[in-house]
Design brief:
This protein is α/β, with parallel strands linked by helices. It folds into two domains: 10-176, Rossmann fold, CATH 3.40.50; 194-306, K homology (KH) domain (GMP Synthetase, Chain A, domain 3, 2-Layer Sandwich). 36% of the residues lie in helices and 22% in strands. The protein has nine helices and nine strands. It has helices at 24-32, 75-89, 106-117, 136-149, 166-176, 194-210, 244-251, 256-273, 293-298, and strands at residues 10-18, 50-56, 59-65, 93-99, 123-129, 155-157, 218-227, 233-241, 277-285. The strands form two sheets. A six-stranded mixed β-sheet has the order 2-3-1-4-5-6, sandwiched between helices. A three-stranded mixed β-sheet has the order 7-8-9. Helix 6 runs antiparallel to helix 8 (256-273). The chain starts with 9 loop residues before the first strand and ends in a 10-residue tail after the last helix.
Length: 308
Protein backbone atom coordinates (compact mmCIF):
# COMPACT_ATOMS: atom_id res chain seq x y z
CA UNK A 1 0.00 0.00 0.00
CA UNK A 2 1.17 3.52 -0.81
CA UNK A 3 1.28 5.43 2.47
CA UNK A 4 1.20 8.82 0.73
CA UNK A 5 -2.38 10.02 0.38
CA UNK A 6 -3.28 12.69 -2.20
CA UNK A 7 -3.69 16.25 -1.01
CA UNK A 8 -7.48 16.20 -1.36
CA UNK A 9 -8.69 12.62 -0.94
CA UNK A 10 -12.36 11.72 -1.23
CA UNK A 11 -14.15 8.60 -0.08
CA UNK A 12 -17.67 7.33 0.37
CA UNK A 13 -20.21 4.59 -0.14
CA UNK A 14 -22.20 3.95 -3.32
CA UNK A 15 -25.17 1.56 -3.22
CA UNK A 16 -26.21 -0.27 -6.37
CA UNK A 17 -29.92 -1.10 -6.30
CA UNK A 18 -32.39 -2.52 -8.78
CA UNK A 19 -34.51 -5.51 -9.61
CA UNK A 20 -33.00 -9.00 -9.50
CA UNK A 21 -30.75 -9.67 -12.48
CA UNK A 22 -30.53 -5.98 -13.44
CA UNK A 23 -26.75 -6.28 -13.69
CA UNK A 24 -25.65 -4.95 -10.31
CA UNK A 25 -23.06 -7.65 -9.67
CA UNK A 26 -21.70 -7.36 -13.20
CA UNK A 27 -21.37 -3.58 -12.80
CA UNK A 28 -19.65 -3.97 -9.43
CA UNK A 29 -17.13 -6.41 -10.84
CA UNK A 30 -16.51 -4.11 -13.82
CA UNK A 31 -16.01 -1.07 -11.58
CA UNK A 32 -13.65 -2.84 -9.19
CA UNK A 33 -11.79 -4.74 -11.90
CA UNK A 34 -12.04 -8.09 -10.11
CA UNK A 35 -14.70 -10.64 -9.31
CA UNK A 36 -16.06 -9.85 -5.85
CA UNK A 37 -19.73 -10.61 -6.45
CA UNK A 38 -21.14 -13.71 -8.08
CA UNK A 39 -22.74 -13.33 -11.50
CA UNK A 40 -25.10 -15.96 -12.87
CA UNK A 41 -28.10 -16.16 -15.16
CA UNK A 42 -30.29 -16.69 -12.12
CA UNK A 43 -32.07 -13.91 -10.25
CA UNK A 44 -31.53 -13.20 -6.54
CA UNK A 45 -28.04 -14.71 -6.45
CA UNK A 46 -26.54 -11.91 -4.36
CA UNK A 47 -27.51 -12.44 -0.72
CA UNK A 48 -25.06 -10.37 1.32
CA UNK A 49 -24.14 -6.73 0.99
CA UNK A 50 -20.83 -7.19 -0.79
CA UNK A 51 -18.58 -4.16 -0.77
CA UNK A 52 -16.12 -3.68 -3.60
CA UNK A 53 -13.51 -0.94 -3.43
CA UNK A 54 -12.49 1.01 -6.54
CA UNK A 55 -10.01 3.84 -6.95
CA UNK A 56 -10.89 6.74 -9.25
CA UNK A 57 -8.27 9.49 -9.24
CA UNK A 58 -8.02 10.81 -5.68
CA UNK A 59 -11.31 9.18 -4.71
CA UNK A 60 -11.99 5.81 -3.13
CA UNK A 61 -15.41 4.45 -4.07
CA UNK A 62 -16.79 1.75 -1.78
CA UNK A 63 -19.57 -0.08 -3.61
CA UNK A 64 -22.37 -1.80 -1.73
CA UNK A 65 -23.80 -4.50 -4.00
CA UNK A 66 -27.25 -5.20 -2.61
CA UNK A 67 -29.63 -8.10 -3.16
CA UNK A 68 -32.15 -7.45 -5.91
CA UNK A 69 -35.32 -5.74 -4.76
CA UNK A 70 -38.42 -7.87 -5.20
CA UNK A 71 -41.62 -8.80 -3.37
CA UNK A 72 -40.46 -11.00 -0.48
CA UNK A 73 -42.27 -14.19 0.52
CA UNK A 74 -39.92 -16.24 2.69
CA UNK A 75 -37.80 -15.25 5.69
CA UNK A 76 -34.66 -15.31 3.53
CA UNK A 77 -36.36 -13.09 0.93
CA UNK A 78 -37.38 -10.57 3.59
CA UNK A 79 -33.88 -10.46 5.05
CA UNK A 80 -32.41 -9.89 1.57
CA UNK A 81 -34.77 -7.00 0.81
CA UNK A 82 -34.07 -5.44 4.22
CA UNK A 83 -30.34 -5.70 3.49
CA UNK A 84 -30.84 -3.97 0.14
CA UNK A 85 -32.66 -0.97 1.58
CA UNK A 86 -30.25 -0.90 4.51
CA UNK A 87 -27.36 -0.61 2.07
CA UNK A 88 -29.10 2.22 0.25
CA UNK A 89 -29.83 4.12 3.46
CA UNK A 90 -26.17 4.01 4.51
CA UNK A 91 -24.79 5.20 1.17
CA UNK A 92 -23.61 8.64 0.10
CA UNK A 93 -24.96 8.03 -3.41
CA UNK A 94 -27.45 5.47 -4.72
CA UNK A 95 -27.32 4.19 -8.30
CA UNK A 96 -30.54 2.64 -9.60
CA UNK A 97 -29.99 0.12 -12.40
CA UNK A 98 -32.81 -0.39 -14.87
CA UNK A 99 -32.65 -2.88 -17.74
CA UNK A 100 -33.15 -1.04 -21.02
CA UNK A 101 -35.03 -3.85 -22.74
CA UNK A 102 -37.44 -4.40 -19.82
CA UNK A 103 -38.20 -0.74 -19.17
CA UNK A 104 -40.46 0.41 -16.35
CA UNK A 105 -41.71 -2.86 -14.88
CA UNK A 106 -43.97 -3.07 -11.82
CA UNK A 107 -40.83 -3.83 -9.85
CA UNK A 108 -39.11 -0.66 -11.05
CA UNK A 109 -42.25 1.33 -10.25
CA UNK A 110 -42.22 -0.05 -6.70
CA UNK A 111 -38.55 0.91 -6.26
CA UNK A 112 -39.24 4.43 -7.54
CA UNK A 113 -42.15 4.75 -5.11
CA UNK A 114 -39.92 3.65 -2.25
CA UNK A 115 -37.20 6.10 -3.25
CA UNK A 116 -39.74 8.93 -3.41
CA UNK A 117 -41.10 8.01 0.01
CA UNK A 118 -37.62 8.23 1.52
CA UNK A 119 -37.52 12.00 0.96
CA UNK A 120 -34.99 14.37 -0.60
CA UNK A 121 -32.03 13.47 1.60
CA UNK A 122 -30.77 10.69 -0.70
CA UNK A 123 -28.66 11.39 -3.78
CA UNK A 124 -29.76 9.06 -6.57
CA UNK A 125 -28.34 8.54 -10.07
CA UNK A 126 -29.89 6.43 -12.82
CA UNK A 127 -27.95 3.87 -14.85
CA UNK A 128 -29.85 2.34 -17.75
CA UNK A 129 -28.10 -0.97 -18.33
CA UNK A 130 -27.91 -3.38 -21.29
CA UNK A 131 -28.31 -0.50 -23.77
CA UNK A 132 -27.03 -2.73 -26.58
CA UNK A 133 -30.36 -4.58 -26.51
CA UNK A 134 -32.59 -1.70 -27.64
CA UNK A 135 -32.74 0.93 -30.39
CA UNK A 136 -31.89 4.56 -29.68
CA UNK A 137 -35.47 5.97 -29.89
CA UNK A 138 -36.74 3.48 -27.33
CA UNK A 139 -33.77 4.23 -25.07
CA UNK A 140 -34.41 7.97 -25.18
CA UNK A 141 -38.11 7.47 -24.44
CA UNK A 142 -37.27 5.30 -21.43
CA UNK A 143 -34.81 7.90 -20.14
CA UNK A 144 -37.41 10.66 -20.39
CA UNK A 145 -40.06 8.49 -18.72
CA UNK A 146 -37.85 7.57 -15.77
CA UNK A 147 -36.65 11.13 -15.19
CA UNK A 148 -40.25 12.31 -15.21
CA UNK A 149 -41.10 9.80 -12.49
CA UNK A 150 -38.13 10.65 -10.23
CA UNK A 151 -35.62 13.49 -9.94
CA UNK A 152 -32.35 11.72 -10.67
CA UNK A 153 -29.20 13.80 -10.32
CA UNK A 154 -27.61 12.24 -13.38
CA UNK A 155 -28.47 9.60 -15.98
CA UNK A 156 -25.97 7.20 -17.53
CA UNK A 157 -26.36 4.82 -20.46
CA UNK A 158 -24.24 1.75 -19.81
CA UNK A 159 -23.54 -1.84 -20.68
CA UNK A 160 -22.03 -3.36 -17.55
CA UNK A 161 -21.18 -6.54 -19.43
CA UNK A 162 -19.36 -4.79 -22.30
CA UNK A 163 -18.06 -1.86 -20.27
CA UNK A 164 -19.76 0.89 -22.30
CA UNK A 165 -20.35 4.03 -20.24
CA UNK A 166 -18.96 2.49 -17.05
CA UNK A 167 -15.90 4.75 -16.88
CA UNK A 168 -18.06 7.88 -17.16
CA UNK A 169 -20.22 6.65 -14.28
CA UNK A 170 -17.19 5.83 -12.15
CA UNK A 171 -15.59 9.25 -12.84
CA UNK A 172 -18.79 11.04 -11.85
CA UNK A 173 -19.09 9.04 -8.64
CA UNK A 174 -15.47 9.76 -7.77
CA UNK A 175 -15.99 13.49 -8.29
CA UNK A 176 -19.18 13.57 -6.23
CA UNK A 177 -18.04 11.73 -3.11
CA UNK A 178 -17.35 13.80 0.01
CA UNK A 179 -13.86 14.95 0.93
CA UNK A 180 -12.19 12.76 3.52
CA UNK A 181 -9.54 10.08 4.09
CA UNK A 182 -9.75 6.76 2.34
CA UNK A 183 -11.66 4.08 4.21
CA UNK A 184 -9.59 1.06 3.14
CA UNK A 185 -6.00 0.30 2.13
CA UNK A 186 -5.33 1.32 -1.47
CA UNK A 187 -4.76 -2.26 -2.62
CA UNK A 188 -7.88 -3.75 -0.99
CA UNK A 189 -10.77 -4.54 -3.33
CA UNK A 190 -13.37 -5.96 -0.94
CA UNK A 191 -14.17 -5.94 2.76
CA UNK A 192 -15.85 -9.32 2.83
CA UNK A 193 -13.83 -11.97 4.64
CA UNK A 194 -12.03 -14.24 2.21
CA UNK A 195 -13.93 -17.17 3.73
CA UNK A 196 -17.20 -15.66 2.49
CA UNK A 197 -15.85 -14.72 -0.94
CA UNK A 198 -14.62 -18.28 -1.43
CA UNK A 199 -18.01 -19.64 -0.36
CA UNK A 200 -19.77 -17.31 -2.80
CA UNK A 201 -17.56 -18.54 -5.64
CA UNK A 202 -18.46 -22.15 -4.89
CA UNK A 203 -22.15 -21.25 -4.66
CA UNK A 204 -21.96 -19.61 -8.06
CA UNK A 205 -20.54 -22.78 -9.61
CA UNK A 206 -23.34 -24.81 -8.01
CA UNK A 207 -25.95 -22.38 -9.33
CA UNK A 208 -24.55 -22.57 -12.85
CA UNK A 209 -24.25 -26.35 -12.82
CA UNK A 210 -27.61 -27.21 -11.27
CA UNK A 211 -29.73 -24.69 -13.21
CA UNK A 212 -33.38 -25.12 -12.16
CA UNK A 213 -32.90 -28.20 -10.01
CA UNK A 214 -32.00 -26.39 -6.78
CA UNK A 215 -32.75 -22.71 -7.35
CA UNK A 216 -32.42 -21.32 -3.82
CA UNK A 217 -32.45 -24.40 -1.63
CA UNK A 218 -28.76 -24.45 -0.81
CA UNK A 219 -26.07 -22.34 0.78
CA UNK A 220 -22.30 -22.72 1.12
CA UNK A 221 -20.17 -22.00 4.18
CA UNK A 222 -16.40 -22.08 4.58
CA UNK A 223 -15.99 -24.26 7.66
CA UNK A 224 -12.20 -24.20 7.91
CA UNK A 225 -9.29 -22.33 6.30
CA UNK A 226 -5.65 -23.32 6.80
CA UNK A 227 -2.75 -21.31 5.38
CA UNK A 228 0.05 -23.81 4.81
CA UNK A 229 3.80 -23.26 5.05
CA UNK A 230 4.26 -23.80 1.30
CA UNK A 231 2.02 -20.78 0.58
CA UNK A 232 -1.03 -22.82 -0.39
CA UNK A 233 -4.36 -22.83 1.43
CA UNK A 234 -6.60 -25.71 2.47
CA UNK A 235 -10.26 -24.70 2.37
CA UNK A 236 -13.03 -26.90 3.74
CA UNK A 237 -16.56 -25.94 2.73
CA UNK A 238 -20.00 -27.30 3.56
CA UNK A 239 -22.92 -27.21 1.14
CA UNK A 240 -26.19 -27.16 3.09
CA UNK A 241 -29.32 -28.48 1.36
CA UNK A 242 -32.89 -28.82 2.63
CA UNK A 243 -33.70 -32.43 1.74
CA UNK A 244 -32.01 -35.80 1.21
CA UNK A 245 -33.07 -35.75 -2.43
CA UNK A 246 -31.21 -32.48 -2.91
CA UNK A 247 -28.03 -34.04 -1.57
CA UNK A 248 -28.11 -36.60 -4.36
CA UNK A 249 -28.54 -33.87 -6.95
CA UNK A 250 -25.53 -31.95 -5.65
CA UNK A 251 -23.36 -35.07 -5.51
CA UNK A 252 -24.44 -36.30 -8.94
CA UNK A 253 -23.89 -39.73 -10.47
CA UNK A 254 -20.83 -41.28 -8.77
CA UNK A 255 -19.98 -37.85 -7.36
CA UNK A 256 -19.43 -36.29 -10.80
CA UNK A 257 -21.39 -33.10 -10.13
CA UNK A 258 -19.69 -32.11 -6.90
CA UNK A 259 -16.30 -33.03 -8.36
CA UNK A 260 -16.90 -30.76 -11.35
CA UNK A 261 -18.16 -27.93 -9.14
CA UNK A 262 -15.17 -28.30 -6.82
CA UNK A 263 -12.70 -28.15 -9.68
CA UNK A 264 -14.29 -25.03 -11.19
CA UNK A 265 -14.51 -23.30 -7.80
CA UNK A 266 -10.92 -24.18 -6.93
CA UNK A 267 -9.60 -22.67 -10.17
CA UNK A 268 -11.49 -19.44 -9.59
CA UNK A 269 -10.46 -19.17 -5.93
CA UNK A 270 -6.84 -19.79 -6.94
CA UNK A 271 -7.02 -17.02 -9.53
CA UNK A 272 -8.51 -14.65 -6.98
CA UNK A 273 -5.96 -15.47 -4.26
CA UNK A 274 -2.99 -15.83 -6.59
CA UNK A 275 -1.87 -19.07 -4.94
CA UNK A 276 -2.55 -22.81 -4.89
CA UNK A 277 -5.73 -23.97 -3.16
CA UNK A 278 -6.78 -27.39 -1.87
CA UNK A 279 -10.60 -27.29 -1.80
CA UNK A 280 -12.66 -29.93 -0.01
CA UNK A 281 -16.47 -29.97 -0.27
CA UNK A 282 -19.03 -31.78 1.86
CA UNK A 283 -22.82 -31.89 1.48
CA UNK A 284 -25.01 -31.86 4.59
CA UNK A 285 -28.78 -31.98 4.92
CA UNK A 286 -30.31 -29.36 7.23
CA UNK A 287 -34.05 -29.29 6.63
CA UNK A 288 -34.59 -25.86 8.17
CA UNK A 289 -31.33 -24.05 7.36
CA UNK A 290 -33.33 -21.07 6.08
CA UNK A 291 -34.72 -20.67 9.61
CA UNK A 292 -31.36 -20.83 11.42
CA UNK A 293 -29.83 -17.55 12.54
CA UNK A 294 -26.28 -18.93 12.15
CA UNK A 295 -26.74 -19.35 8.41
CA UNK A 296 -27.86 -15.71 8.09
CA UNK A 297 -24.80 -14.51 9.97
CA UNK A 298 -22.57 -16.41 7.54
CA UNK A 299 -24.30 -14.64 4.62
CA UNK A 300 -23.99 -11.21 6.22
CA UNK A 301 -27.76 -10.90 6.70
CA UNK A 302 -29.76 -10.04 9.81
CA UNK A 303 -31.95 -12.95 10.89
CA UNK A 304 -34.42 -10.56 12.58
CA UNK A 305 -35.00 -8.73 9.28
CA UNK A 306 -36.69 -11.88 8.03
CA UNK A 307 -39.43 -11.75 10.64
CA UNK A 308 -42.84 -11.38 9.06
Amino acid sequence: MNDELPENPRAGFVALIGEPNAGKSTLLNRMVGAKVSIVTHKVQTTRARIRGVAMEGDAQIVFVDTPGLFRPRRRLDRAMVAAAWGGAADADIVVLLVEAHRGVTPGVEAILDSLSARGDGQRVALAINKIDRVEAPRLLALTEDLNTRFGFEKTFMISAERGHGVEALRRWLGDELPAGPWLYPEDQIADLPMRMIAAEMTREKLTLRLHQELPYQLTVETEAWEDRKDGSARIDQVIYVSRDGHKGIVLGNKGETIKSVGQAARVEIEEFLGRKVHLFLQVRVRANWQEESERYSEMGLDFKDGDA
